[in-house]
Structure formats: C-alpha cells, structure tokens
Amino acid sequence: MQINWQLVIDIAKAVIVFFGILTCIPILVYAERKICAYIQDRRGPNRVGPLGLLQPVADAIKSFFKEDYTPSHVDKVLFTLAPAMAFIAPALVFAVIPFGHLMEIKGYKILPQVFDMNIGILFVLMIASLGGYGLILGGWSSNNKYSLLGGLRASAQMLSYEIAMGLAVISIIMTAGSTRMADIVGVQTQGLWGTCIPAWNIITQPIAFIVFLCTAFAETNRLPFDLAEGDSELIGGYHTEYSSMKFAMFFMGEYLAVLTMSALIVTLFLGGWYFPGITEVGNTSLLNGILSIFVFGTKVGMLVFFFIWTRWTLPRFRYDQLMKLGWKILLPLALFNIILTAILGLR
Question: Is residue 147 part of a domain?
C-alpha cells in the first residue's frame, strides 16, 4: 500500500494549527494579565510558578473540575451548543489564513495554510458570523432576562458591524482582484508605485483598515465594544448562567477570536508573511519558509498587544454610541471607500 504523503502533510498541518492556536490561548491570558497589571501599576500573576507562569494552568484545572451546573429552566440543547459555536467559529476561520511562504522539501510542496480556498475571504465572512450566533443562542437559551438582553445586544452589534466589515473587505477584493487569501497577500508583496515600499493595504486602503479594525473590536466583543457582557449593567450578559467548561469555552472563544482577527488584519492589510529584506517572494527554501512564519507571528503578536492595550485603556461606549458609530459613521465611510477605490482603480 502506497502512502499518500501529501494527504499526510495536509492532516499534519490541520493538527499542528489546531493545537498551536489552543496553546496560544493560555499565553494570551497570561499576557493580558501582565499587560493590564503594568498599565494599572500592579504586579499581576506572581504566585503560581515562577513569575506566575503557571497561573493559566491553575485556571484551566479550576474550570475543568468546577461543578458544571445547568439550570433547570434552560433549553439544554441550545444551552450546550452555544459555547461550542463561539469557540469553533474563530478556529475554522484560522484554517484559511496563509501564515507563511510556500516551502518545498524533498519534492513535496508545503503551504503553511490548512485550506487554500479560492473563495477564502468569503468563507471568513461566512464563518466569522457564526460566533455571534453562539452569543445570541447562549443569551436566549438561558431563559434569563439579563442573558437575553446580552444576546439581543450581541445580535444588534453583529448586524451593525458585519455590514461595515463586509464593505471594507469588498474594497480589498477590488484592490487584489481575487477572493483567494494567498492572492491578497501576493498583491501586497509588490512595490508601491514602482518603489521599494511594500504595497500593503494599510497604505493603499487606509480607510478600509480603520473600518475593519473598529469592526474587528466589535466582532470580538472586547472593550470598548463589550456591550453584550456589560458587567456593570447585565452582570455578565449572555454567559450569566454558565459555569465550568461551558463558561471556559466562551472565555477561550474570545481570545481565539482576538488571535484570529489579528491574523486576518495582518493578512488583509499588513502584507501577511511578507516583510521586505527578510522574506523573499518565490524562494521555496525551508529557511525562507521559517522566516515567513516568524514574520507573520511577530505581526500577529503586535496586533494582539494592541487589542489588549486598547481594552485596558479606553472606557466602554454607551449602547447608543455603539449603534451610532456602526450605522452613521463606519457604514457610510466604508461605502465611500468602495466608491473611491472604484474611481482611483487601486491595484
């Protein structure tokens, strides 16, 4: 029986990426605690393990062994399904993001991307919205008024900001001339206006970048857009009735969404794995592939830091301000950018 090594490579990529992003979650939790402690002039985790490094492990053990209480008045099927949807959706989005340059090892081509889809960016928009349904179902199935209000807020927020996000992506598709994620990165590896400056979309599409960045914060339900939780108003919002691993899946889903959105912003606006002088286009060597993955990871790490920094710096919006920003500012701005892109013919 002949082994299909290409199939083995594809399965290995999926396994490595899945467990890789799962490993990143406790690192992000620890990083957020340390960064917010530094911003607030305190020490952060420092008791469990050296420098508090084992604190995420202690949190995981506590969540796993804590009583998994399900109230009698909830819709048990949807109540269980909701946190799974909030966790799985951002993980599936990461599967179509190219995080490195093509490598060729002993005749086998290895693309650091789980699924190379021709409609990759459309797949992203489709799957990303499912995470919002997890919040909505969690709030509705809890049969709790605070949770229901959180779910309603999440649904209104999702509708308001996903429209602007989709319109921002349309301008990127117009610039790249393709919906394939690798092609979007490929366009950004060219020189800008015949110079050595990389044609990253943050330079050629600054309006789309601003719109997408704001909507990414709203999609991840992080401050200043965490109205679906609204602890001071809704005592936790959509996840009020959750405990143990079900709550942990909501918790991990938020950090996974931050990681995925950061990777998406890097891919669409910051040149993906490309950085002039470090990675070479067309070089399929192992060294160039490793460098490209390192460049991509560094960019994602910087954006994750920006997400954390913003959360512990800006106050929460009022809900009317949230809706006004989405419908009266970001939506018209995204429409204007599409018209501007069509007129200027940026490619």
Answer: yes
Task: Dump the DSSP string for 104-148.
Answer: EETTEEE-S-S---TTHHHHHHHHHHHHHHHHHHHHHHTT-HHHH
pLDDT digits (tens, 9 = 90+) for 44-64: 888 888 888 898 889 888 888
Domain that holds residue 331: 71-344
**CA pair distance 106, 198, nearest whole angstrom:** 31
Reduce the DSSP state of residue 239 to 3 states and report it: helix
188 with 198: CB under 8 angstroms? yes
d(CA 331, CA 343): 19
Residue 44 maps to a domain = no
Burial zone of 205 (CB within 10 Å; 0-12 exposed, 13-18 middle, 19+ buried): buried
Q: Residue 328: how many CB atoms within 10 A of its CB?
A: 10
Q: What is the Cα–Cα distance from 122 to 162, expressed in whole angstroms?
A: 13
Q: What are phi and psi of 220, to 5 degrees?
A: -90, 0
Confidence of residue 1 (pLDDT cuts 50, 70, 90): low
The structure tokens 């013919």 sit at 345
Which residue, among 169, 177, 253, has the nearest Cα to 212 in the 3D structure?
169
Whether residue 305 is contained in a domain is answered as yes
3-state secondary structure of 32: helix
Nearest-angstrom CA–CA distance, 323 and 317: 10
Question: How many domains, the chain?
Answer: 1
For residues 169 and 268, is the Cβ–Cβ distance under 8 A?
yes
First to last CA, the chain: 49
- Rounded CA-CA distance 267/253 in Å is 21
What single-letter DSSP state applies at residue 103? E
pLDDT at residue 268, as a whole number:
93
Alpha-carbon gap, residue 294 to 298, rounded angstroms: 6
Question: Taking the mean position of all CA atoms in its chain, how far away is CA 149?
Answer: 24
Q: What are phi and psi of 313, to 5 degrees?
A: -120, -45
- For 243-255, what is each residue's pLDDT tens digit? 888 888 888 888 9
Q: Note whether residue 43 is domain-resident.
A: no
User: What is the rounded radius of gyration, in angstroms, for the C-alpha atoms of the chain?
Assistant: 21
